[in-house]
C-alpha cells in the first residue's frame, strides 16, 4: 500500500483513538479492526466512518483516484472528530 494511503489511514486511526479516549477502559486498542469495531459500538454516529476505514484497512492497493478520495474523506472525518472533541471539551468545562 502506498505511503500516502498508509499516512491517511494512520491519521484516521489517531482520530478514532482520540474519540475513544474518553470512552474506553485503560486498555488501548492494538489492532485497527478492533479500533473500528469499538468506534462503531461506542459512538454510533461514527459507525459509517468506522466501516469505511475498516474496509480500506483490508485493501492492499488503491487506485490514484481512490487514494485522492481517501484523502478528501479523511479531511471530512477529522473535521467531524474535531467538532466532537470540541463539544466534549465545552460540556466538560461548562
Explain how this protein is built.
- This protein has 94 residues and is mainly α.
- It has one domain.
- The chain has helices at 3-20, 32-42, 47-57, 64-93.
- The longest helix has 30 residues, at 64-93.
- The mean pLDDT is 86.
Enumerate how many helices there are, as a single number. 4
Structural domains: how many: 1
Structural shape? globular
C-alpha end-to-end distance: 44 Å
Helix and strand succession? HHHH
Helix and strand arrangement:
Elements: H1 3-20, H2 32-42, H3 47-57, H4 64-93
Provide a concise account of the structure shown.
The chain has 94 residues and is mainly alpha-helical. It has four helices and no strands.
Name its key features.
94 residues, mainly alpha, 4 helices, 74% helix, 0% strand
